[in-house]
Task: structure prediction
Amino acid sequence: MPDFRKWRKEFPILSKSVYMISNSLGAMPRGVYGELEEFADLWATKGVVAWEDWVPMVQSTADMIGDIINAPKGTMIMHQNVSVLQHVLISCFDFRGKRNKVVYSDLEFPTVHYNWKAREKDGANVVIVESPDGVHLPTELMLREIDETTLVVPISYVLFRSAFIQDAKAIIRRAHEVGAVVILDAYQAVGTIPVDVQDLDVDFLVGGSVKWLCGGPGGGYLYCRKDLIPKYEPKSCGWFSHAKPFDFDMDPIRYHPGIMRFMGGSPGVPALYSVRAGYRIIQKVGVKAIRKRSMQMTARVVERALEMGLVVNTPCDPAVRAGTVSVDFPGAERACDELIRRKFIVDYRPRAGIRISPHFYNTDDEVEAMMDEIAKLRARPRRRK
Ligand SMILES: Cc1ncc(COP(=O)(O)O)c(C=O)c1O
Result:
């Protein structure tokens, strides 16, 4: 096992708290200070000419994630967030024909659901598969719903509430058999479990940077399989989606031949600087090593939680559990507030409980300390009103 402790000095917050909230906002690497200074320096000294450096960063920054998820060059761009990306991708589809079915589950991140559900008025037939227990999503249930009328399957690789890892490969295979495409939201996967877009043969992949990639907000990213890029024409577009943005022509848009067609307007440049330090660290540590370490720590969290008699709203089988363990008990929401006050940083979500997400920079002692603190809080007598 590599020495993960050496990375701790790169994350200032680790000296001030037990930080286990990578499901929400990973620890900031100290290298971000320098990155943002570089952004400000360039702006201050080069002014408008700085765009020469900034525009190519839309792809070069995304290529850094490409290295992590095995995406070929030219298949990824940075964007704002997953919500906007869903909107851009939805605008590529026509729901007026017989093939108008959209299949996902009731455990999806709500932003995906809001966007697709809103297209029912345009003819989308949205079918929501129900999880039997609020934790797992048996693959057969998804496969059964994906048929010849299915247009799109917009699903998460890792479910945000329970950290269940979906069998994305089987779902993608089935979608392709019937002529549908899959948009994989890999936000809760990239940086904590190995993701390989070519092995998955996924059509589109979206995600963001603030969780397991230790990046800043506004660092959304899109992957599109190379052969599909010319086939899709997003109605939600902008001058950066044009083949020749600086022609400023007023004819209907002529789409950029490459991945930039999905771009829309000007990039959020500071966000591009804010993500790079985290990506570099994740690349160096390596996701395979991260996954191994994460499995050790989450197994211990599950073990302690079960010993304490907590409800574990996360798969007990490590093979289908990603980086988070959700634990629940009466008063868990209040306990979560108190944990944060005591500098044990986690979060609480309804129907999940307290989400505990150790990352490679956490230690075994921190895992024990977190669970000891939960044990103390749980034992606390309820205050009388
Ligand atoms: C699976 C998943 N998708 C999307 C998001 C967030 O979407 P956005 O980038 O639009 O804020 C989250 C955030 O928690 C998430 O867990």
